[in-house]
Design goal:
The structure holds 2 protein chains of 2 kinds. By secondary structure, chain A is an alpha+beta fold. Chain A has a single domain (3-357), classed as Orthogonal Bundle (Cytochrome-c3 Hydrogenase, chain B). In chain A, 48% of the residues lie in helices and 15% in strands. In chain A, the strands form 3 sheets. Chain A has a 3-stranded antiparallel beta sheet with strand order 1-2-3, with no helix packed on it. A 3-stranded antiparallel beta sheet of chain A has the order 6-7-8. Chain A starts with a strand and ends with a helix. Chain B has one domain (3-141): 3-Layer(aba) Sandwich (Rossmann fold), CATH 3.40.50. Chain B is 35% helix and 18% strand. Chain B has a 5-stranded parallel beta sheet with strand order 2-1-3-5-7, sandwiched between helices. In chain B, strands 4-6 form a two-stranded antiparallel ribbon. In chain B, helix 1 runs antiparallel to helix 5 (123-141) and helix 2 (24-33) packs across helix 5 (123-141). Chain B is globular, with a radius of gyration of 15 Å. Mean pLDDT of chain B is 82; it is low at 148-152. The A-B interface holds A 10-13, 16-18, 38-44, 46-47, 50, 58-59, 62-66, 68, 109, 112, 124-125, 128-129, 132, 135, 144-147, 352, 354 and B 15, 17-28, 30-31, 34-36, 46-48, 50, 60-61, 63, 65-66, 69, 73, 95-96, 98-102, 119-120, 122.
């Protein structure tokens, strides 16, 4: 059988971002995959060395527009740990609320794109309609839809006051109602199952040895989530990771679907338990020495490392994003699948190229 | 106005490409297509093939690698076409202006007709930009404005 190599991307309707996969096929079966990267690289890590600490929050936020709040949270917690200041309790709860809202909007976006990738157009529209409720909540509480710019070193810049609180509760209730209609379709529909069950299998042992993170790892039966470390207010919210044992694209989809339900509960819980108090404290000096931190993004574990030298600028910032750890697993999942399944399997790791290439 | 020109303005097809931004504007473009904003009611369709497109929607600052892709997409889109640069990054480089791999705005590589401001650009602003682009498309069709392929 003759081998044919053809490009999948960088411009492809399924991918909102630019990455190229060079697929080598025998007939309809993929035998080899080679990722070609660099279409989204900007050089943020180097640019971060030229900016003052407080400006880097906005730069870090724009590493990725989908999980922007969590990137800012990660950077702020890192600088706080290096300068030995602690964000006030109210700021911690607010950070938790906004990072869970970002998680919901990221997962709903992904669920929609997944439905679109196997041609279930109406489900895509439903997911994105439900997502608009979350974006409205974010806009009401922070002033922006996708890039919030509310996190700052030492705390947060916006508040959810007593007037907004019942409105957030009401919107969460409205979202839950929308989710109740979507959940059974993803969980039980024949079309969804036919396109996802048994596709892109990643065995439990390999998931660990390849170093995958996030829903890819949890979909292969490992209870591992950086939120268990208890940063922000997660240690006070009785957080339990969502785990599925299917090891396939369907299991990864179910992890994300169940995480949406869990995140809604976390938002409501955090909103009820949020203490009163100030929103931010000021850092009195510039960081010196090294720091490292792990937080959980919608796509998995995000690691940031920074080194400061007591001046107004960072010496080094290193970001390791979850998609970077998940791409090796993708290269293992793709060979042997059919060409028609390539978009579904590629999406099943929720690739975020803007994060990965920075 | 001929039949083709009328059809183009009534049902413009959009090609969307991200030249290296943060995704914020990309998801807002997708949000335009979904029920709350629903640009399909104006006949606007998102398609994957540059040869079928009338409007190029470009997001993000152009970096050294994606400039070739952007150039190809521009040249493969049949005339008359309009280019919309979405977000501040696509206009000037924005927050990434001092990154080493960033060339600058989209207008460094291809001529731009409409700039949409915002970081990230709001769906309402994007729809407004498309409406402005349609007026330009009409003007181009009637011979008011014209660009040679690869003007810069």
């Amino acid at each position: 059988m003759a081998r044919v190599t053809f490009p999948f991307g960088p411009q492809h309707p399924v991918l909102p971002e630019a990455i190229q996969l060079q697929l080598t096929c025998e007939d309809e079966r993929v035998v080899e995959v080679l990722p070609v990267v660099g279409y989204m690289h900007r050089g943020i890590e180097k640019a971060a060395e030229r900016n003052p600490y407080s400006h880097n929050v906005f730069l870090c936020e724009r590493i990725c527009g989908i999980c922007s709040f969590i990137h800012a949270l990660c950077y702020c917690e890192l600088v706080e740990s290096m300068t030995k200041i602690k964000a006030p309790p109210r700021a911690k709860y607010l950070r938790t609320i906004w990072s869970e809202l970002s998680r919901i909007h990221s997962h709903m976006l992904w669920l929609g794109l997944l439905a679109d990738s196997f041609g279930f157009e109406s489900l895509f529209m439903q997911c994105w309609r439900a997502r608009e409720i979350i974006l409205d909540t974010l806009e009401m509480t922070t002033g922006q839809r996708v890039i919030q710019s509310t996190c700052t070193i030492g705390g947060v810049r916006c508040d959810i006051d007593s007037e907004m609180k019942p409105e957030v509760h009401r919107q969460m209730k409205a979202f839950k109602k929308e989710l109740e209609a979507i959940y059974p379709v993803f969980a039980r529909d024949y079309t969804v199952k036919a396109r996802l069950v048994g596709k892109g299998v990643l065995p439990k042992e390999q998931a660990w040895s390849l170093g995958t993170v996030g829903p890819v790892l949890r979909g292969s039966g490992w209870a591992y989530d950086a939120r268990m470390l208890g940063y922000a207010a997660y240690d006070e919210l009785e957080f339990e990771p969502v785990v599925e044992n299917g090891c396939d694209a369907y299991a990864r989809m179910m992890v994300r679907l169940r995480e949406v339900v869990q995140s809604v509960e976390l938002v409501v819980k955090a909103l009820d338990r949020m203490p009163d108090g100030e929103l931010a404290v000021t850092a009195r000096r510039f960081p010196e020495g090294e720091g490292i931190i792990r937080v959980e993004q919608p796509r998995g574990e995000l690691v940031e490392y920074a080194r400061g030298n007591g001046t107004v600028r960072l010496e080094r910032l290193k970001v390791r994003t979850p998609t970077f750890s998940n791409i090796p697993a993708l290269l293992l999942m793709l060979p042997g699948c059919e060409v028609a399944d390539v978009p579904v399997i590629t999406l099943s790791i929720d690739p975020c190229i803007a994060c990965t290439e920075r | 106005m001929g039949f083709l020109a009328r059809a183009r303005v009534k049902s413009p097809w959009i090609l969307h490409y991200c030249t290296g931004g943060c995704n914020g504007c990309d998801i807002e473009i997708l949000a335009c297509l979904t029920p709350l904003y629903d640009v399909e009611r104006f006949g606007i369709l998102n398609i994957g093939n540059p040869k079928h497109a009338d409007i190029l929607m470009i997001t993000g600052p152009v970096n050294w690698r994606s400039r070739h892709v952007l150039r190809n997409l521009y040249e493969q889109t049949p005339d008359p076409k309009v280019v919309i640069a979405i977000g501040v990054c696509a206009a000037t480089g924005g927050v990434f202006h001092n990154c080493y791999n960033v060339l600058g705005g989209v207008d460094k590589v291809v001529p731009v007709d409409v700039y949409v401001r915002g970081c990230a650009a709001r769906p309402e602003a994007i729809i407004d930009g498309v409406v402005m682009a349609l007026q330009k498309l009409e003007a181009k069709k009637s011979g008011g404005v014209s660009y040679a392929a690869g003007a810069r």
